[in-house]
Every structure is written in C-alpha cells, then in structure tokens.
Amino acid sequence: MSTTQLRSKVVSDFKMHGLSLRGDATHLLVQFLQSESETRRNQWLERLIEKIQGLGLSRPVVGKDDLKAALEECVNAESAGEELLLVIDAFTVPRFTYVPERKKYVADSVLGKTIPSLLGDSDDKASIFVKRYTILYERMSRHELFAPAVIGSSKAEGPRFTLRKIEYLLGTTEKLDKVIILGMLTQLKEGKLYLEDPTENCFVLVEGEYIGSKKILKVITLGSPPAEPIETSRRFLGDMNFFGGPSAKSLRGSEKLKLVEERNSEAIFVFLSDVWLDHPGVMERLQTLFRGFSDFPPVAFVFLGNFLHASYGMDQAKELRDKLKHLGYIIISYPQLAQASKFIFVPGPKDPGIGGLLPRPMLPEFVTQDLAKDVPNAIFATNPCRIQYCTKEIVVLREDVLSKMCRHCIYFPSSGGDIAEHFVKTICGQGHLCPMAPHVSPTLWTSDHALNLFPLPDLVVVGDKFKSFTESHMGCTIINPGTLPRNEFLFKVYYPVTGQVDDSQISNLHT
C-alpha cells in the first residue's frame, strides 16, 4: 500500500468513528504504520481509535499530542505481559460490555464505566444475569443453526431457525408452529418451572409451539445452549484480551511465546486437590512427590484446598500457618525444585478467609507469611484464579460445583453418558463456572464476570470432591484431580505444548 493510500485509509477509518485527524497527527500515524502488515495496521487502528475514544476529548479533533499519548499507551500495553507464567487475580479480570450498535465487545474502561465497589448494589446483581444472557444470545446468534444464510455461498446448508426472545412472544397474538427461544429457568412456586428473560438461574434453549391468543407455549424440546469452539470465538473477538493480565491483547497469538512454548516441550503442570496438610499420609506422599520431581522440576505445582481436614475452631488459621510453614521446610529441602518451580496455592471453601462466596480472596497474609519467607516462589492465588503460561490459558476453581449441580438439577440424567460429561457440556454451554441460583452458589455481584468461560480457555481445573475425571469439549479440556487422600493419591499432570493430561499416582514407598 502506497503512502497516499495509507493516509487515505487512516483518515477514513477515523472519520467512520466520528473523529478528525490534524495534519501533523496524520503524518505521525502514517509513518508509524508504514512498516506494518495490512492485518497489523487494522489492529493498530482499531486499538488507537478505542484508546482515543476513552481519552474524553472535548471535541472530535485529534491532535499530535493526543495521538502520541494513545500510541504510547498501546505500545506499552502490547510489550507488557509477555511473561512465561502469569497468575491472574480474579478481582483484576477485565470487564467487557457488548455494544449492539458496534456489534462488538468494548472494555468498560473505554466506555468510561467506573469500577464498582466490592459489594455493589441491586443494579450490580441484576446486571450479572443480563450480561450472562447477552453473551449467550450473541454467541447463539452466530451458531450455524441461527446465523443468516450467506448469499452466494456454495456450501450445502442445513435448516436454519430464528432465535427469539421471550418479549417477542409476549408481543404477538399469532400462532407460531415452530419457535425457538433462549430464556432462563426459574422456580417461582414449588413444583412449577417458569421461563423468563434474565433472572437468576440456568439458561436453556426451548423449542415449541406458541399460541399467541392464549399466551401458551407448548414445549417440545428443552436443552442447554451449545458451546462455541475456541477458534470460532477468537475469529469474532480478534485479539482482545478477555483473559486478564497486563497485556492489551490476547497472548494466544504471540509468536514469540509460541516459540518458547514449543522449545520447552517437556514443561508440565502438576495439579492436586484437597491437599490436607494435617493428614500424615498427605505430608508423607508430598515428600515422595517432590523427591520424584526434584531432577525434572515442573513449571508449577498447583495446590487446591481445603488445606486442613479437621476443624480446629478458633485455632484454624494458626494451625494452617504452622502446617504451611512445615510444608515450606519440606520444599526447601529440595533446592533445585524450590528454585525452578512455582508453588501456587488456591484456597478451598473451608480454608480461613471469606467463605461461601466466589470469587474469594487469597489466603490471609497471617497464614502464609512464614511459607512466603522460606519459599520465594510460592504464589497465593484467589479462588478462582487464571494462569497464563506462554500462549495457554488455564482457569482454576476449587468448589464442589459438580456435587451442587447434582443435588439441585431439575432432571438427573439416568443414561446417555456419565455425570462428568454432562457437567462439562453444561459449564461450557452456559459459559460460566457456577451457573446456578444465587442461594445455591452465591457470587460477589461486581466480580461474577471472573467466573465466565467465554471465550473458552485451553484448560479448566475444577477441584471437586467428585471422582477424578478428564473430559474435552469444543477444544477445551476440563479436569478434576479429585480429593487427594480419598482418591488413592491420584493427581493430574498437564503438558501445555500438546494439551495432553495424564493421570498419575503418588506411590507409598512402604508398601
């Protein structure tokens, strides 16, 4: 593309967004973009326009200084965050809002939305389900069953349907023979289920016959929304960083990190759940585990709570502090392991701290300070947390969510696949780690987005007391290590470069 053509494109793109560039600003931007490929130019222009829109200019004229400020922020954001391993706090996960006029997601910071307080208000509670519904509805609209036919396409196309909202049905008196709607199941009266627009439960797709004059919908089929493959989501979202971390764009497409990842083909993550440090058998097996990995240190050991089995009442925090300190002594007795590996601790529902709500903060400093002093590579994470390793995205949750779903499900599957398979399809389809009513699985209203699974990550680790399993769905792998002492000391080993997950066991050297 010639300089004249590039200048014309730059001016045109800014005009499309209601912005006008001064001559010196245009010259600076053309110089900056001249050496970039066409794809990269489009990405830079999109980012710059979003950044400038967030500057709050008094008039839609962009000067050289304004452009410089936006350029510096974008360059710094792009170069930041390309670390091999990042553990992302649930309370720092970025917020995005779908803007129908633009047909795209826009960061709340760009829209000028203020960061809400920790507890929030009633509006924040309502927005949880509105945002979940919007994500699902927008995602379903791209599904091959509901997307408009492409004019001139040579591909053989199957039947297509129109996805409706409940408000559409309430506004018509016609009889609709075949209607499909996306709504939320709720139980306003015992024994009776209702279908609503966003309220507070699990979303479902319903196919049926609607009699407008009587306001009756006769349901023929009811099911969970299908999940969307990772690559399909990424084609729509581009390189926006939904996952979190300091980088402005998703690291999934970083060629630099991809090369590092492939070079470290033997890199592994070790996941263990319910690591009861007050259980003699657990401490003994951990020493065996560390001894076995001492010559080939993993990238990280990820320990999921609960970290105590027994209840110690008022001394719970002190007891855990002592046990973690003892664990630190064991770790530093293997110097190569202590220096080369990270040790990530994700609290469980019964560990000291704010229990009963998700996301929950990391373990209190009083509990962890001795271990942190002895083991500098110890990382204390929130629950859930996110781990970025090179280009791989990992979500970790410690909650008995599968067990809760089994207790509160409307229809318990009697056949057609095992429970783990149904669970995996549910959380991927719902796009959320805990798609249940607030009284069953309460969340902090202003941080519920940290539990979203959109777009799907590469790996989801759910620490549940249910038996250990490994399942894959739509390009995403979901694993449950199971309760360590009750599961014959089984744990999971993840190979990021291939996505492979192995079942491993800590043997008892005395048997």
UniProtKB/TrEMBL annotation:
Record key words, sorted: DNA replication, DNA-binding, Nucleus
Keyword DNA-binding recorded: yes
All residue ranges annotated as the DNA polymerase alpha/delta/epsilon subunit B domain in the record: 269-470
Parts forming coiled coils: none
UniProt subcellular location: Nucleus
Coarse class of the protein's main subcellular location: nucleus
Ranges of residues in domain DNA polymerase epsilon subunit B N-terminal: 4-74
InterPro entries: DNA_pol_a/d/e_bsu, DNA_pol_e_bsu_N, POLE2
Family: Belongs to the DNA polymerase epsilon subunit B family.
Function: Participates in DNA repair and in chromosomal DNA replication.
PANTHER family in the record: DNA POLYMERASE EPSILON SUBUNIT 2, DNA POLYMERASE EPSILON SUBUNIT B
Protein name: DNA polymerase epsilon subunit
Native species: Darwinula stevensoni
